[in-house]
Amino acid sequence: MIMASSLLFDDNDWTFSRINDADRACAQIAHDELGLDTYPNQLELISAEQMLDAYASIGLPVYYAHWSFGKQHAIESGQYKRGEMGLAYELVINSNPCISYLMEENTMTMQTLVIAHAAYGHNAFFKNNVFFQQWTDAEGIIDYLSFAQRYIAGCEERYGVREVTAVLDAAHAIARNGIDRAQRPRKLSAAEEEARRRERERYLEQQLSEIWRTLPASATVRKETEDNQPYPTEPQENLLYFIEKNAPQLPNWQREILRIVRKINQYLYPQGQTKIMNEGFACFVHYYIVHRLHETGQISDGSLLEFYASHTAVVFQPDYDDRRYSGINPYALGFSIFRDIQRICLAPTAEDRRFFAFAGDPDWKKQILFAMREFRDESFILQYLSPKVIRDLRLFALQNDPDAETYRVSAIHDDSGYREIREHLAQQVAESSRPPNIVIERVDRWGDRHMELRQRDSSPLVHSDAQRTLAMLHRLWGYDVRLYLTDVDIPLQYPE
Amino acid sequence: MSNIIDRRMSGSRSNANRERLQRRVRERLKETVEKIGRTGAIESLSQGDKAVVVPANDLYEPSFRRDSSQGPWERVLPGNKTYQRGDEIPKPEGGGGSGREGAPDGEGEDALGIVLSSDEFLDLLFDGLELPNLRRGAGGEISSEVWQRSGFVRDGSPSRMHVARTMRAARARRLALRAGKRRAIEELQEEYESVQAEIAARQAAGRDTRIEEEHLAELEEQIAVLQRKLRAVPFIDEADLRFAHLDRHSQPRSQAVMLCIMDVSGSMGETEKDLAKRFFLLLYLFLKQQYQNVEIIFIKHHSVAQECSEKEFFAAREGGGTLVSPALGLAADIVRTRFPAAEWNVYLAQASDGDNYFADNAVVEEIAGELLEVLRAFYYLEVNRDDESHLYQVFEGLMEAFPQLVCTRAQQREDIYPLFRKLFSKAQVHDHG
């Protein structure tokens, strides 16, 4: 369906009206041809300096102040100024409206690419991926971040920057262990948040005095039943939540800060779980849209070539022995898989038919959108990593036995290796996006109030780090903390 | 339809984080800055941004994390070339995994370079220093006038119009002017309805309704008039305008003058001049950075003394014999004529190699003694001498009577900054040591 259209731009400088036109052209292809469902878009033009700012705060447009963001900024602006790092062309926020940043240095071709990638690719992913739908609240996030920023600034005024920083340091240290993996978080809203905050304060005081009662209520009745029960009754994996609700001495404003850190981390959690899919899908969308723009005569051959240069750089996967290698490039892997889903629909081989029930389905868009909606990285790889992609990337699995003198190649891209590689890669991806599994097993309610934690997975931890993290935990809990590790018998503890 | 916003003008928002970062590593930054103060090239002290390196360990953010160098693992890598299943690959020396993880002790991160602006740098360089004996009471204080915001007024220049206040006033006026009319209209309307009801009742009873209908028309008229009036209440009126008010406030401030006297005679070699200039440059930067109202007067001398500009002072290379008294005499003249001690805090700093025409020392003693009567502090710095000069002894002799006189000696450039810190540190105003 090639329509005669005129070029959206004939030289490469961007203007607001060109961006507007390009956005409209991208929207038409995204919505009408690909059938994407997106949040309304907000495109913000920013300077390189502002992009560095945004980097420092994980891309969030509003964030409370903390030295670690300053550190991040110092590292990145240093690298950028020395020419060691290019800035990402785009940054996009999972909010409604969906905010995408366009850098003023970009050419018009790049702006078009970024709009297609972020404002339609990522945007559709944010809105439709089940994991995002369940875990994040695009409506409320900006409001909530403003609330958090105000609240923490207020605390700094009342209790001093030093005090607030100490709480944030400690909260950040265990932030990754602050996710309820089984439970869907509640909606965010700044106004309700304020009201709930007061309610919580009141409730908590009652609650705490209940847990930490020094005098048994009616001494005889309760003692035998409840009080001798270990507490908590189930191991708790959400360290931040448990401490927020149970720390005996923590002032309420500090509990609120823990909650803020926890909420924001929860909001960010799906991003780590879907990096490959999210980037892969956005690349797939920009690739489709830009090609359609070219086919319909809306961008020139020159623009298409410029697009190829950027696109290729983004989805480039250096080999394991290449100096540029720094792990699997999520853009490369994700894009390869989504493109391959399309190919498996349109031109399936006998091998594809053996591996995939949907091979040969003429409605490739339906298959792509289904894959985008229903999976996260781990299950996506298990489901869709095809022999063809394994061959193209020449993936192989390497095994390390700490006692052996050599590594062993355990699978390569051949018939016997495909499934193994798929499983290992899925597991590797899952593991790298998951924090070590550490739970609170018991707190001593009637004695010295110490807390016992236990590691429940087998990968060894960096001990010095764990020790320093325990110190942070102790700062919040207020009493001795002990951590039983998998690889040693004696627990780490703080104070040592 | 997307919303396109230009954010480029809204500027950077990293300052709060930057400030907190610097606060956190303040002690480290100070160490490094002070090292630069001791050994760095003097010209560069005041110029441009400076990268200060802080060990990453100071800024380490711990968390529970896996140790990839330990334990068994299985990893998928791209770009296989010749490997077959079952191939054995020797482990690299020193173990380790992919080579990207930090050292196992978690302290393998690179040091962090923090870029300080020259203001931030100088603030740290002069942290905790002050001019001693600064008199803030009568005399050394004048008041200067500054403009300050103070409330809101009804007229002013359009550029100062306060929109929120104006709209608030407009709303209040609209409410006030409309409320009465609204109430009146409501009452009339009620009456109107009751009359209508009465008409209906009378008509039902077959009675005459002329009077009532006239009444109705009258009411209609009244309501229409009120409604017109209601509409005529303007949304915004000149009376609503509010302007931010600025007011003059007098603010007391203390004023001070620093007289810098440097020997530029033939006996002052490169080393001596470098030491003296280093001292004066620190002094100059310190005063410029920390004090708004300090005058600095530069005097160079050999056998003749001359007031000069800052540029000439720091570039000075001259020669000839040495007489110290003319310089002190010139300083005394300047103080007498331009900076009466009743109104000014007067300070003097002098640097010399101590070589002075022997007969002049008696004159120096006399003039210095007179000057010291009015000086808040007098610093005599003797550079690059193994022994104390005669001049030094003359000054030392005056210290008994004048505790604000401080004599010190410096041999090498690294001495200058610590010495400077000692002279101006807040805790010890008079150090006779």
For the terminal residues of chain B, how far apart are their CA atoms? 77 Å
% residues in beta strands of chain B: 15-25%
For the sheet with most strands of chain B, the description reads: 6 strands, mixed
Q: What oligomeric state is this?
A: heterodimer
Unreliably modeled segments of chain A: 219-224
Calculate the mean pLDDT score of chain B and round it.
84
| Tally of contiguous helical segments of chain B | 11
* Range of helix content of chain A: 55-70%
Secondary-structure element series of chain B: EHHEEEEHEHHEEHEEHHEHEHEH
Shape of chain B, please?
flat
Q: From the alpha-carbon coordinates, what is the Rg of chain A to the nearest angstrom? A: 26 Å
Assign an overall shape of chain A.
globular
**Distance between the amino and carboxyl termini of chain A:** 72 Å
Strand order of the largest sheet of chain A: 6-7-8-9
Averaged pLDDT of chain A: 89
Attribute tags:
heterodimer; A: 496 residues; alpha/beta; 4-stranded mixed β-sheet; 3-stranded mixed β-sheet; 20 helices; 56% helix; globular; B: 433 residues; 6-stranded mixed β-sheet; two-stranded antiparallel ribbon; 21% strand; flat; disordered C terminus
Short description:
The complex is a heterodimer of chains A (496) and B (433). Chain A is an alpha/beta fold and 496 residues long.
Written overview of the protein:
Chain A contains 20 helices and nine strands. Chain A is α/β, with parallel strands linked by helices and 496 residues long. In chain A, helix 6 packs across helix 8 (190-211), helix 12 (275-295) packs antiparallel against helix 13 and helix 17 (377-384) packs antiparallel against helix 19. The radius of gyration of chain A is 26 Å and the shape is globular. Chain B is 40% helix and 21% strand. Chain B has helices at residues 15-24, 26-39, 118-125, 163-204, 210-232, 270-290, 310-315, 325-338, 360-372, 390-399, 413-424; strands spanning 3-6, 50-54, 73-77, 88-90, 112-116, 141-153, 243-254, 256-263, 294-301, 305-308, 345-352, 375-383, 405-410. In chain B, helix 4 (163-204) runs antiparallel to helix 5, helix 8 (325-338) runs parallel beside helix 9 (360-372) and helix 9 (360-372) packs parallel to helix 10. The longest helix of chain B has 42 residues, at 163-204. Chains A and B meet through helix 1, strand 1, helix 2, helix 3 and helix 7 of A and strand 1, helix 1, strand 3, strand 4 and strand 5 of B. Strand 5 (406-411) of chain A pairs antiparallel with strand 4 (88-90) of chain B.
